[in-house]
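Long-time lurker. I teach an intro course on protein structure, and each term I like to show students one example going from raw sequence to a predicted 3D structure in token notation. This year I'd like something fresh instead of my usual example. Would anyone be willing to generate the tokens for the chain below so I can use it in lecture? Attribution to the forum is fine with me.
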Amino acid sequence: MGTILEPERPHHTGSGDTVPSTMRTDTPADASEHARTARKGGAPPPDLELLVHGVGGTTPEEMLGDPRTSPVTGDETAAVYRRADDIDAEQRPPEDREGPDRDGPIREAYVWCNLTSGNSSRALWLLLLPFMVANLAHWMRPPADRRERTVRTYGLLVRLVALTLSVLLIAGACEVALDLVAWQCAGSADCAGGKSWLGFLSPENHGWWSQPGRRLALAAVLPGALTGLLWYLSNRTWSAYEASPPLERPVDESAPEAGNRPALCLPGFWYGRRIVARLRAAHTAAGFLTIAAGLTLPTTTYDREPGGSGLQDTAGWALLTLLCAGAVTVVAVVCYRGRSESKVDGELDRITITALPGAALAVLALSVLYAGWSRPGWVSTHQLPGNEAFCAIAIGEGALIVTMAVCALVLHRAAPGRTPLYGLAGPAVAVLACGLGAVLAGGVAQRFADWLDGGGTPGEGPGIAPPVLLTWLATAIPALLLVLVVLLVIFTVRVWRVRNRLLPTIMDGYPGERPDAVRTRRIAATIARAGLTDSAPWIVGPVAFLTLLFGALCVTAAWVTDEVPGRAADGAPGAVDAAAQTAQALGSWLMGLAFLMLVTFARRAYRSPSARRTIGILWDVGTFWPRAAHPFAPPCYAERAVPDLTWRMETWTREHGGRLVISGHSQGSVLAAAAVWQVDHRTRGQVALLTYGSPLERLYGRWFPAYFGPTQLLSLHGEVRCWRNLWRYTDPIGGPIKLPDGSGPEVDCDALKDPLAYGRTTEHPLPAPILGHGDYQADPAFDRERAGLLARLPEQTPPPAAEEAAGQMSSGRSSG
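-- Reply from a regular --
Happy to contribute to a lecture. Here you go:
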């Protein structure tokens, strides 16, 4: 698994040079002195364009349009590159620079793709998808509008939902290892007899491991190892991806409207070390306690039967007391503290993060010893008492999500806006996270039961079977798929109708061209499909509601009948009985197939660039946000990328005193905006923002209104010196910014023409492609807008004396 954590080294240069040795080592004072000496006569300092790519990744050679590039600063994971001929561009006048940008700004490329992609084994991160989705729910709350108590309650509820997901995953592993393998199969002569790897556990052999408690104790190694692996990955990825301290500055409380500034301006927003460490300790302890409960509950049940040992019964009650105390402590740790964003909080609650998982591991060790205590008369029959546990987890998740929805409605009512689903996007996404968790846990259990049972339908007959609730949940999957098919048909018809409505308008953008029906239909269809992005709430909302409804019905049916759907429908009319049997069999296969497809498609996605772009959009959105609710979610690349960009902008402007345009495409525009929010006021006065194909308003502004809503984007427009946004109607991701005060046209340019030419022209002798979300820099408007931004920035003077620059940089480093 270590390969998951090692990013691939990017291809730096096309000339075969050994690029790590070309990293610049000049001190800020030396570089400032060199630049000042080179610009004799007080010539203005150079300009810089800092390019930030979007989803799917790219190479510095493609971004800079030159096969020879060299890193300026950074490492194998993320770095800033330049053309090899521009390494010392600040020390030369513009007329001495080479290349197509000789009269324009110096160009740098920030390459961060290795933070989210790399070798194909990193696709295993997709198995943490439920955790990532639950973490997203934290950031989807409506704006606060001075309701801090409700905001804190909402965040607390999301953290508790995330905790139940960890318990659900470990409980699923316990179901496979403890119940299906150690209890049911190893306890059955028919099942264990055909599997040599289980022979030493079979009661027929009368060996030391044949007692049920000892089989359970041995099987606990698997979920225990899984819990330890999750802890290791969370701790290791924090060190590798999120441990970059930002430039620390105290919040100026005396500044006008300091209390109303966007959260992304706060110095500690991109450094959540303390909360992640606390949550990691709590979730790890919860995993160990879940395994301990899986060992202790069936053992104490046997010890309480007539004729049992009084000493063993007393030990069991003591262990149950420890388990309850541990569970209360874990919940208290999760509830106690949220994120600290007003400052860079580098402290750690060392007692909590060390003692809590250590104490839980000690309780697990005691449970192993207790279960391994000799009980010669104990025989494993039927199933472990796991159905009640899974029902309790599902009921707890449902109650927490309903309470979340109440908080979200209160917040939305206080500050209504363009938030999707009337402010219920966060609870809806939390429902989907719980559904994904059930599919992962239940899918593995269903397929294992099917494999151990020799192909029989789990739950039918006396063979190996998972808990009844998992079978009921699997039965609901065909109904959900049917709903998705209906929605797909509806949206297909909608695209067809929108395309037909657009057909008469396409030629308005190409006056004088000869109409081509095929070309016109293709352009109109691309625009219609791009508009489906705005209809995402109509998919998320119904699916989440039906998932919650079906989940409640499944829990009720499993609790009341204690039978699988096929058995519960016995005696019902023939059509109902047949439907129940079909849904049960089909759902069992679909639940297992969903797990296998997730793994298979994940590996393909990281080997195929086209597939990576398909899921990369949602994946990069999910991993953009810090791990505020679930510490086992995939790492947040922005906690490395945003400080990288902030440091680069501030150090370059201090060192050279020039104007800077930060250009961000797609997800790179979100990183650029977040970095601009983090720089100080002096640097912001020298920086212009150019975004293209940007989801800032279309996606982030709607789904994350508390952080990228209209008020926050308007604040960014007011704080940055100048900002322009390029977009196309054919782009399914990017769109206009649409500021609420009517100043949107100051930011948004007119929609770019796509394709650039309708038919064959002198400039385009071959048919021009429909670019959609890509190749914005190929449009002539890109260079015009960049030049316009530089013209709007004030002319700068040469940088201060070397001693002053060195002092400023030293102060910046010590504060960071």
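Some talking points for your students: The radius of gyration is 30 Å. The first strand starts at residue 48 and ends at 52.
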